[in-house]
Amino acid sequence: MEHEHHFNQHLPMPGETRTRWVVCMTAGMMVVEIAAGIVFGSMALLADGLHMASHTTALGLSVFAYAFARRRAHDARFSFGTGKFNSLAGFASAVVLVLFALLMVIESVDRFMHPVPIAYNEAILVAVLGLIVNGVSVAMLRDRHSHHDGGGSHRHDHNLLAAYLHVLADALTSVLAIAALLAAKYVGLTWMDPLMGIVGGILVARWSWGLLRGTSRVLVDRQAPDSVLEKVREAIASESTSVVDLHVWEIGPGYRAAILTVESDRPLTPPDVKAMIPDELGIAHVTVEVHQRRGQSESAGSERTI
Known about the structure:
CATH class of the largest domain: Mainly Alpha
Largest sheet: 3 strands, mixed
Number of strands: 5
CATH topology of the largest domain: Alpha-lytic protease prodomain-like
Low-confidence stretches: 145-154, 297-306
Number of domains: 2
């Protein structure tokens, strides 16, 4: 009988409900800020609103990814479950972040060259309201469930991290918009408004790069950190047994798969090897091949676990 490969991915993720609420709040604030930026002539405020538009789309993608992964967790067409949809959504969100960071910079440069009058009081009020919404969203999406595993590797819900970075970026652009508007109103530094749009775009692009790197490693099945591989080898290797081939990679938030080949001088079965691997490493699916040395009859086997 074959084992199932859903790895508890049919259960709701901790960040799913929180992300839904944040989508609703972000969408409402997006409409207000874009309209206010156009009416009151603030590039920093308009950039913040456009940023929220990108985030509303990306956050919606995060909600969809959570639901899809959960509903298709038992679909046998996905060899290792649906956990990678989490990282796929995070990667897509990071791409959206980069594109809108570029848009912020382009629009801000254009505003440097073609300044327009700004209704400061109204724009500042809307920016403060946006900051409040963003602050609440950041608090709601802060990942309290990420942790270090036994190999010293930090494991994230990439989908939740992407949503968190989106609202954090919104909070940043709100702060920059308020600072720019205050400087322009009280000190006459009108150039601060487009400058803050450029600064915000650069910072958001930098955050996006980190998310792109983290999610792409999962999507291309990059080998687990050396610390994790060493933990596996230390748990199995002895005077009579050695690990001759080892592959460990992530298949979802908090879950890894492993394929390894072991040579031993004593009788050893795949279940024996599997039992040696520390649970703290999160290796949920193991395929083991065992070869016996010293002229003993060679045996090979595999095991799949959930």
